[in-house]
Amino acid sequence: MGLVINQSIKNTIITYFGFGIGAVNALFLYTNFLGKTHYGMVAFLLSASNIMMPLMAFGVQNTMIRFYSKYTTAAERDHFLSFMLLMPLFLIIPITTITYFFMIRLRF
Questions:
Q1: Cα Dmax for the chain
Q2: C-alpha dihedral sign at 83, 86, 91, 97
Q3: For 48-102, what is each residue's pLDDT tens digit?
Q4: 58: phi > 0 → left, psi -120 to 50 → alpha, else beta; which?
Q5: pTM for the predicted model, two decimal places
Q6: Distance CA 26, CA 21 (A)
Q7: Cα–Cα distance measured from residue 39 to residue 19, given in angstroms and rounded to the nearest whole number
Q8: What DSSP designation does 69 have?
């Protein structure tokens, strides 16, 4: 069996397993152990995080794929990976701080 087919089959099995775990959580565990309010809050937070992640990631994943192979030494790659790890924080921390102060100021 070819390498691509082998990895595709493994990836498909793992993806279906992940969907199965998510279905068990959403259909059985969340509804049995959480009340309506808490279940709604969990659903809202999961939906909001799925929407905000691409915005907050600031394109880091695509930048890593494109430019990682350009660095030849291990030190350059380590520096690049460290920068890519910290880059979203440079966006997340100011936005969170501004949002927090506006929430206090407007008393939502």
A1: 62
A2: negative
A3: 888 888 877 778 888 888 998 898 899 999 999 999 988 888 888 888 888 888 8
A4: left
A5: 0.54
A6: 9
A7: 19
A8: G
